[in-house]
Amino acid sequence: GAVAYRVLQEMLTNALRHSACTHIDVALHIEEGRLALAVRDDGQGFDPERSGGGNGLRSMRQRAERLGGSLRFESAPGRGTGVSLEIPLRRAKSATRLGGAHGARGR
Q1: Angle at 64 between CA 57 and CA 88, to 5 degrees
Q2: What distance, in Å, lies between the first and last C-alpha atoms of the chain?
Q3: Ramachandran region of residue 91, left (φ > 0), alpha (ψ -120 to 50) or beta?
Q4: pTM for the whole structure
């Protein structure tokens, strides 16, 4: 949860700071045990081959990889930028978190 939030925050910050866009689309999907997050802007874009990526892009990629996920960039000068994150979701231990041994007392 927190990692996806931080990556989304960085995606939006990059779009607002660097793209000169007028629109940003955000999509979030959860299916088959995976979270997919995508941010697309209509800004100036950049050439991913020529751009060093900067610390923000590198940080987002490292966060995704730590969770066993992936981060992809699609951009071209004059065509906007798309960034997508996909990470596996962990199953919550509902018995432990929602009551476990303590929640069953007194019944």
Answers
A1: 150
A2: 33
A3: beta
A4: 0.76
